[in-house]
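Q: What does the predicted 3D structure of Kynureninase look like?
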Amino acid sequence: MSDFASKVKVLRDGQKPEFPSNANTLEYAQSLDAQDELRHFRDEFVIPTRGSLKKKALDGTIPGVPTNGTTDADTPCIYFIGNSLGAQPKAVRQYLEAQLETWASIGVNGHFSSFSNSPLAPWQDMAADCAAKSATIVGAADPSEVVMMNTLTVNLHFMMASFYRPTEKRHKIILEWRPFPSDWYAFQSQTEWHGLDPEKSMVEIQPDENLYLSTEKILKTIDEHAEDAALLLLPGIQYYTGQLFDIPRITKYAQERGLVVGWDLAHCAGNVELQLHDWNVDFAVWCTYKYLNAGPGAMAGAFVHERHGKVDMSAGKPVFKPRLSGWYGADKSVRFNMDKEFQPTPGAQGFQISNPSAIDLTSLAAALSVFNKTSMKDLRSKALVLTAYTEHLLDEIVRRQPEAEEPAFNIITPRDPLQRGTQLSLLLRDGLMDKVAAALEENGVVCDKRKPNVIRVAPVPMYCRFEDVCKFMEIFEAAIRG
């Protein structure tokens, strides 16, 4: 068994792997890259270069394609920000060119026709095609449980319109202490929309001292509000700390106490393995511009468990779960009848509202074409090792500090590899953020900063290398040493 494979096994058992004394050398990092069976996927992406990051105007060049011989400006940057915006798949340009040619050549007929050598489905079928390609990524039993539409917060509102049905007795939403602001706004406005007081109808689960939400604390909160809570809505991964929650256990526990359970999977989709159908999740939403690499503001996704998507026609009139309805949620067999009676498409796609943007779907289809060449199991295996390697080298930096000196940073992401995704969040010592951020930028490192003191580092497995991690550490350590 190779060094890489043995580390995967250890990590999947929830243990911490051992690294050799020369782990911080470029030679060792490159040896791990050589064992990585997914390393070729890096060639499927356009990685910004140190030169392109400094561009001030369009010049017709593509990063990674040298124009006047290889220079330092042509060196790929260290792109550790896939948790915010994924790198551009090379397929996006090809797919967009095919889409523009289709539109230019056959106009409105593109709704129902496509060219024989095109990678794209007809426009009317593109959302369903992308849903089918996303089903295994989120663990749907069938593509009918997935719908690609809108953006994340819009989908959150639409799902809550159907699944958050407060009554006088059950009206509370249980959420975490620090949701992404857009989620908070959605929860707050939904309670207000129903004429409720957010102070009384929103229950925040407070963290432990280490900023984590233990599963036990979540379950205890569910018990405390089991009689008057209507909905549990948590992130699969907490965006600030990077903590991965025990989705199946929490879902089952809450449902047994009468709650509907939804998940915001913005930081999970394309990052960790999911089995939403088997876990019996009621609904979930996610964006596609982070780990799924579909581009800024790309079309988002939603999951609706098959039991909520049934359409009963036995009485001659469709009976289905209440929702905010729209034309593109209507079954294709009747969609163009222009009838006043709404007959939804069975499954999640019956929750669609409007004609989805073919241009947005084109970018998403291109991104998914890369994912469909591998599996979430293999991506997760690499990510486990890549993040553990990052963690190890960060710990070594701390160990090299003088004992009397306050640590320059602390890792606030769980140390248990099964309780995190790719991201590691670093809480810097007061006064370091500006200096460290400037040094990283100057040296071609792109990662996320959350003021006042947190840097989120995400070496995603699709296009990041162990070599990148090694080089990052040299730059980062020099920055914190001043």
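A (community wiki): The structure tokens above were generated from the sequence. The longest strand covers residues 229-235. The chain has a mean pLDDT of 95.
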